[in-house]
Design goal:
Structural class: mainly alpha
Strand order of the largest sheet: 1-2
Shape: elongated
Number of strands: 2
Largest sheet: 2 strands, antiparallel
Distance between the termini: 13 Å
Order of helices and strands: HEEHH
Radius of gyration: 16 Å
Length: 97
């Protein structure tokens, strides 16, 4: 069996960021706020940061659970969670190939 090391922080961050971009764009809400003195540096708006934190925690949990019990993924019932888990499985499969 091949072993794959996954940087959980990086993967959870990237997945959460994608969710932030998709959700904020869908709602028509701003994603970033910029410092007037340095327009090149931006940070998430408060709303986007709160959403990111929630998504990050969710992905962190999914990834950590997968290390211990991949079969749990198949027992989740929430449709949105199923879609996100499916996306995560595809990403992990692509990393393996």
């Amino acid at each position: 069996m091949t072993s794959l090391h996954i940087n959980i922080v990086e993967l959870a961050s990237k997945l959460a960021h994608e969710q932030v971009v998709n959700e904020m764009n869908m709602l028509g809400h701003a994603i970033y706020e910029f410092d007037e003195e340095n327009i090149e540096t931006g940070s998430y708006t408060e709303e986007a940061q709160e959403f990111f934190n929630t998504e990050y925690d969710k992905y962190w949990d999914i990834i950590k659970e997968s290390e211990m019990s991949p079969s749990k993924w198949d027992r989740e019932s929430d449709k949105k969670t199923q879609q996100q888990i499916s996306m995560l499985k595809k990403i992990i499969n692509n990393l393996n190939n």
